[in-house]
């Protein structure tokens, strides 16, 4: 172990140096370091690949103008009600010269972009339902038709931001400081045991609150388990019901009406048919839907 320790320390220092360099590059190029970058910065190689992808999609030559690329990102993120990404790309949309009127909602965007709504909805929730007719409808000659090159770029953007929305939710990424309800986000420290900043590692006071809530819930679960040992004949189903009740009553789970109310209108205004969501791809005893092959 003693022999391995120096090499492990060198690797850790190298990773930290690489991460620091990437964050500096982010600040120099964009004038800010967004919270996605802060979280991904814990894995510098992944962040580097992610940046290259983002740069190719949003900044490099392509058939779609920059402002439309950001608007498509907004449409995709709004489909999953990801207010973080919607807010981020609303700012980017304006920075590259996008028309502010479009940000009032999907109904204010050009018809050509609005025509993506159906395929955006399907890609987000039930991609197996897409048929060649959906593609043909968009490519059909006319005033609002898409070229094949434009559509390919649009579809890649849609699927990229559907996936990124999942990453944002999975990591609990907070809004930026200049977004509504935003505050700074410091990534979890790899050395949190000894780091003086470990108290803030989950993002300001929010991190402390979250940890306290977890501790409270764990204490309640412990008491439940102790009571189960004392009581005879308590079934697993009864214990599961009690667990769910404790979880719902804890601060970790907000009532659905509060969660719905907190969802900003600047997200829902980019969504048509918000009730449309995921359903199982196949169910036992049912015939599987046909697979759409691109070739």
TrEMBL record:
Entry-linked InterPro entries: AhpD-like (IPR029032), Sestrin (IPR006730)
UniProt keyword terms in alphabetical order: Cytoplasm, Oxidoreductase
Compartments reported by the entry: Cytoplasm
One cellular component term from this protein's GO annotations in UniProt: cytoplasm
One GO BP: negative regulation of TORC1 signaling
Pfam families xrefs: PA26
Bias kind Low complexity: ranges: 191-202
The reaction(s) this protein catalyses: a hydroperoxide + L-cysteinyl-[protein] = S-hydroxy-L-cysteinyl-[protein] + an alcohol
UniProt GO molecular function: L-leucine binding; oxidoreductase activity, acting on peroxide as acceptor
Chain spans, region Disordered: 178-208
Gene3D superfamilies: AhpD-like
Family of the protein in this entry: Belongs to the sestrin family.
Protein name: Sestrin-2
Organism, as annotated: Eudyptes sclateri (Erect-crested penguin)
Gene behind the chain: Sesn2_0
């Amino acid at each position: 172990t003693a022999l391995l320790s120096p090499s492990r320390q060198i690797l850790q220092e190298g990773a930290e140096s690489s991460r620091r360099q990437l964050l500096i590059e982010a600040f120099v190029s964009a004038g800010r370091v967004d919270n996605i970058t802060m979280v991904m910065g814990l894995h510098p190689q992944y962040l580097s690949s992610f940046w290259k992808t983002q740069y190719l999609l949003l900044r490099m030559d392509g058939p779609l103008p920059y402002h439309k690329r950001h608007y498509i990102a907004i449409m995709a993120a709004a489909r999953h009600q990801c207010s973080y990404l919607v807010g981020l790309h609303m700012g980017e949309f304006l920075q590259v010269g996008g028309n502010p009127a479009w940000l009032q909602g999907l109904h204010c965007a050009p018809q050509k972009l609005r025509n993506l709504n159906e395929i955006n909805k399907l890609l987000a929730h039930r991609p197996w339902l897409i048929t060649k007719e959906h593609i043909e409808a968009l490519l059909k000659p006319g005033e609002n038709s898409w070229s094949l090159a434009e559509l390919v770029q649009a579809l890649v953007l849609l699927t990229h931001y559907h996936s990124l929305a999942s990453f944002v939710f999975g990591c609990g990424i907070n809004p930026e400081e200049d977004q509504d309800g935003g505050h700074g986000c410091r990534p979890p420290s790899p050395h949190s045991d000894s780091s003086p900043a470990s108290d803030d590692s989950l993002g300001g006071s929010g991190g402390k609150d979250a940890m306290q809530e977890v501790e409270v819930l764990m204490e309640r679960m412990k008491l439940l388990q102790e009571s189960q040992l004392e009581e005879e004949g308590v079934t697993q189903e009864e214990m599961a019901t009690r667990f769910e009740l404790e979880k719902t009553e804890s601060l970790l789970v907000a009532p659905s009406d509060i969660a719905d109310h907190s969802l900003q209108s600047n997200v829902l205004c980019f969504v048509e048919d918000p009730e449309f969501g995921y359903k199982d791809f196949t169910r036992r005893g049912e015939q599987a839907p046909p697979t759409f092959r691109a070739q």
